[in-house]
Amino acid sequence: MSKRALITGITGQDGSYLAKLLIDKWYKVFGLYRRTSSPNMWRILSLGIQNEIRLIPGDMTDMASISNAIIQAEPDEIYNLAAQSFVGTSFEQPLVTAHVDGIGVVMVLEAIKQINRKIKLYHASTSELFGNGRVITNPDHLDEKSVLWPVSPYAASKLYAFHQIRIYREAYGMFAVNGILFNHESPLRGMEFVTRKITNALARIKLGLQKTLELGNLDSRRDWGFAPEYVEAMWLMLQQSVPDDFVISTGESHTVREFLDLACQHLDLDPSVCVVQSKKLFRPIELNCLLGNSTKAKKVLQWEARTAFRELTKIMVDKDLERWQDYLNGKIFPWDAINDPLLY
After folding, report:
1. Does the annotation count 11 as an active-site position?
2. Could you tell me the pTM of the whole model?
3. Which pLDDT does position 34 carry in this prediction?
4. Are 75 and 119 in contact (CB under 8 A)?
């Protein structure tokens, strides 16, 4: 008998890749999504899995809709990926971020506690939890025992959720885990994230559709991996006999400037000509470096990143170039490249 899974935030990058992974493993997949006037299904459509998923409308700030989704899906596993996931927006909308990324997680936990405590829960935590904690302890790499010191409303909301997962696990014996994922990118990444902003704009510049790209801090360092590999780690966490939290990362850090230079190099563009740096795009508090240590995941989950940084950049550039070439050839209209709203 096939397993059943409920994915919140199924229309996002990770939700779509995870749904594809679970479908390939013969799961019956249900997805909680926020109903809007502008459908945000392009990722699911691009993976060709729309007919394999049962979508349930709901809202992460509404306990009734969360409970209803669980009752309808009767899941063995829940993957909570829903979030207001853009750091910059969290400074502009701190209350929305707190409700969705913090209180919404407690609603999921409460619903599981009341409906069926045997359900396994994966919660999408984030490397942003570490914030500038490395300044205090100065570790080379960040792991499950490193200091957590958030520097954004997004990270602070996620920290609240992180501890609630642990508390419910210890207090009620629930199988609830945090996946502390470092940055993971793909051609399905939203336009609000710097990697996709770069690859999409450079593809347009290469084809003569725009002239320049405006960016903020080019010296920020991140540990960047490939999203389809990271959702495998999510699944592996729920296949363990004992619930635990895991850092998922590549163990390498690169600057935004390095990503930009590789992307420009691949397209034979000169960044000094087509890129403009703007102070207005800097964060109110800059988080300059995130570098993970996934030794525990490698040992327990038998997981490690496989796609190199240069290859990741190439994959994303090539896909955005292909999208805009198709557009110019009249094949498709790339809604994903032009109208990718901040939806969870």
Report:
1. no
2. 0.91
3. 83
4. yes
